[in-house]
Amino acid sequence: MDQSLTFDLDLIHRYDQAGPRYTSYPTALELHENFGEADYLRHIEQSNRLGGPLSLYFHIPFCDTVCYYCACNKIVTKNRAHAEPYLNDLCREIEMQGALFDRGRVVDQLHWGGGTPTFLSESQMRRLMVSTRRHFNLREDDEGQYSIEVDPRETDDRTIAVLRELGFNRISLGLQDFEPDVQKAVNRIQTEQETFAVLEAARNEGFRSTSIDLIYGLPLQTVESFSRTLEKILQVSPERFSVFNYAHLPQRFKTQRQIDDADIPVPEVKLAILQMVIQRLTEAGYVYIGMDHFAKPNDELAVAQREGKLYRNFQGYSTHSECDLIGLGITSIGRVGDAYIQNVKNLDTYRQTIEQGRLPVFKGFELSWDDKLRRAVISGLICHFELKFRELEREFSIDFKTYFEQELIELQKMAEDGLLTIDTDQILVRPAGRLLIRNICMVFDRYLTEKQQFSKVI
């Protein structure tokens, strides 16, 4: 497939609005508290009847220091002892969840996120993985996609060696920006030396994929300053980049109130930074996967996209659409069968629920037939930038143009603007429309309302 990308400033200005990131459809905003443990158990039973591999997500919420831009679910503390009771509860949840899923179901994907997973000590990380292996069927051939997010400030050669020994083979390094004034403004002081030392250690230990996370739109950033950061990283050539747009929502996220609004780059500067990033990464041989992600052409995400096998879930892009996703730990979200499930968000509530021997289900959502159809539509667009009508017509027994008559009418304006083409049997997103893929997907979202708060699409 054509994986090229066009930066059209006029189109971006016209279509730059707020919208979902579509790590799921319906989005997590639709999860509700009327969905409880009994509903989850019912979907697990259905899932076990179908079988298939599993994906595990573990939320490690602790951070040593607060990054002012962060909108993640986190607990900031310098007291490492706080992790121990949480780990006790998490291991108990692993035991309870593991007992519900057929032992023969292999875990093809595993991810530790946060927070800062490397906040855990070496002995705690070992204990967590031992508990996971005891209650779930982890792969022993190193062919699974076992990934972890690390903070280079919390990681050294020894930590990397332990992570590799535990079975991790993919790693994502948080960075955001190397400029000292930007780092000071967001309270994240991180040197080039410690960042690249972790990257080199990961490669020496045999990690198969390395990714660097950057954020554009942070205070005091300019095109020139961000270009310097990008150039330094390109010299070490990670397999992937995640270049996120900073969403400044201080009314929702208290830590963002520490950022001076006057230091936030104006929209024109943010767009200029994005344009520079696209140009430099394209020149360096990276391809645009979608939704802020770039990868080398031989990376598994890029290959999966070309082969029509890419998928998107609550952790982002994935190559394993067949996996049911089990979320473990506070705030984590899973997808089992035709349902989304989120755990409780509060540490005390989590502990009390676990101590009572109950699953910490906070809320969830059961997909209707229409939800599953629209999910397939949005997933096809956001992963592959194309949608073949006949495939959906066979799977859902519909006439696509009849069922989505109104949506196709709405898409005509986008077609006229050059974002996409609508043929007799498909929708094809053009290079100029790929940065605006969220806008295209929003046309098919029947839950979308003006009252919902989302980040800008660019």
UniProtKB/TrEMBL annotation:
GO biological process, one term: protoporphyrinogen IX biosynthetic process
GO cellular component: cytoplasm
Chief localisation class: cytoplasm
Sequence positions that bind S-adenosyl-L-methionine 2: 69-71, 115-116, 176, 188, 213, 247
CDD domains noted in UniProt: Radical_SAM
InterPro entries in the record: Coprogen_oxidase_HemN, Coproporphyrinogen-III_oxidase, Elp3/MiaA/NifB-like_rSAM, HemN_C, rSAM, rSAM_sf
Binding site for [4Fe-4S] cluster: 63, 67, 70
EC number in record: 1.3.98.3
Catalytic activities: coproporphyrinogen III + 2 S-adenosyl-L-methionine = protoporphyrinogen IX + 2 5'-deoxyadenosine + 2 L-methionine + 2 CO2
Binding site for S-adenosyl-L-methionine 1: 57, 114, 149, 333
UniProt pathway: Porphyrin-containing compound metabolism; protoporphyrin-IX biosynthesis; protoporphyrinogen-IX from coproporphyrinogen-III (AdoMet route): step 1/1
UniProt cofactor note: Binds 1 [4Fe-4S] cluster. The cluster is coordinated with 3 cysteines and an exchangeable S-adenosyl-L-methionine.
Location of the protein in the cell: Cytoplasm
Gene3D superfamilies named in the record: 1.10.10.920, 3.30.750.200
Subunit structure comment from the entry: Monomer.
The protein's name: Coproporphyrinogen-III oxidase
The species this protein was found in: Methylotuvimicrobium alcaliphilum (strain DSM 19304 / NCIMB 14124 / VKM B-2133 / 20Z) (Methylomicrobium alcaliphilum)
